[in-house]
User: Fold this.
Amino acid sequence: MMGHLKQVGVAEGIQFSSGGMIGNSLDSHRLVKFAGLLADQKQDAVINRLYRAYFEEEKNIADSQVLVSIAESAGLDGAKVREMLAGDHLLKETQDAVDQVHASGVSGVPFFIVGDKFAVSGAQDPSAFEAVFERALGAV
Assistant:
């Protein structure tokens, strides 16, 4: 599985590495939500930097210092991010969203839900997405 993922990644300019720490990602989800309150572009930048930090640089995205660094590199105010992470801002909303996703059967990423009915799990070829999009269009 990792060999295929690395091969696909190279074709897309991504250097996947699997030696990093695995930890609770709740605070990284809070950071994404926080960035989204500021601007969609900030949220996109945070998400891209989180992915790079975790999947390519083997950084611990459960570490608040790593999250602050990621936020700053995306143009967010580090002091505000530290304050958010130290408190409970967005904690309940984020945990509720995670719980809802888990309750629907999602246990890993990537996971895509199309039209609230059709799912694609894992790193898939474009043809898998095309098939799901066609099914979703047919159900309309």
Summary: The first strand starts at residue 111 and ends at 114. The helical segments are 2-11, 26-38, 40-56, 64-73, 78-86, 91-103, 126-138. The chain has a mean pLDDT of 90. Residues 40-56 form the longest helix (17 residues).
